[in-house]
Amino acid sequence: MIKYIGSKRPLVRLIMEIVQRVAHAENVLDLFSGTSRVGHALKARGCRVLANDHNAYAATLARCYVQADAEDVLDNARRLVREFNSLKGSPGYFTETFCIQSRFFQPRNGERIDAIREAIAAKGLDPELEAVVLVSLMEAADRVDSTTGLQMAYLKAWAPRAYNDLELRVPHVLPRAPHGKGVATCLDALDAAALHDADVAYIDPPYNQHSYLGNYHIWESLVRWDKPPVYGVACKRTDVRERRSIFNSRPHFASAMKRLLDAVQAPILIISFNNEGYLTRAQMEEMLAGLWDGQRCVATIEKDFKRYVGAQIGIYNPQGRRVGQVSHLRNKEYLYVVSRECLAQRLAPLASPGETEPNLFDETARESSLRPRSGLRTAR
To answer: Strand 315-316 vs strand 236-237: parallel, antiparallel, or unpaired?
Structure first.
């Protein structure tokens, strides 16, 4: 799958363990699906996954990894990948924008991307099959880009992988899950929450100022193929300035999150957050404990991870001079599990060794339970 800030790759196994321990989940809602890494893993576990994301590239990833089923698309996908891999390059919008005006890709690879994307557009494919080949192209381009994993900027010197030749591979599309065919939508999260009900809802919202559309604008343009006007050194789509998520706004985040949580139709919630978000751990736990007139129990699992590579490198100006200092190298990732019943005992084995405390599951004093501390704890 593509390189992605906020990817839950390190947490996928833990999230699967949580789902297994807290519910016999047949239907799981993923409201901010991103790369669909979590949705793909849930589908592999047999769940029917309802995936949503308001960005077109993310919805396309979900259509490939959650909605499309191997028995329906793989034979044709393999044939198309062979066909597209044989195409010669033909320079067009992608080459001009992302190889000449900017330096995200070597021109010869940009020309291949142009030729393959035009060929996909000309085929008029079924949406699921089209999503699979678009993801194949997106992932092939990701393997030869020259970035640190974000499209806010490109590297001053070419990344070694940028010299490799673009090669499409068939994505790892799964067979249909035993609990039913998945669904991928491209809606505002509040609309998707009102549309779908599920046994468990997994919620991984944007939680700071960084826009996923701005960070991955090339994939948005590649999927939409609308060849939009661009601005700035990174050649971002002009609509990056207009299509802003309310979850990227500090003043509006808390109220938006509360509205979303109230709208979700699932008895169990799993919320992914970290210490760079607009809400502290204590603030988030208090909000979650107050859901449904305070009839919710909240268990928190805390994990420590390295920050993404771009944050570790530091901040540089267009001339290549370092202009900022790295504030920290590691983040605390939080998984909040919310239910009407106390799930702490079921989740206790998932806390890392040394993170638990003797009074970890004491629910008698709410103020005490909301004090920041490591490991797993509960609050009503």
So the answer is: unpaired
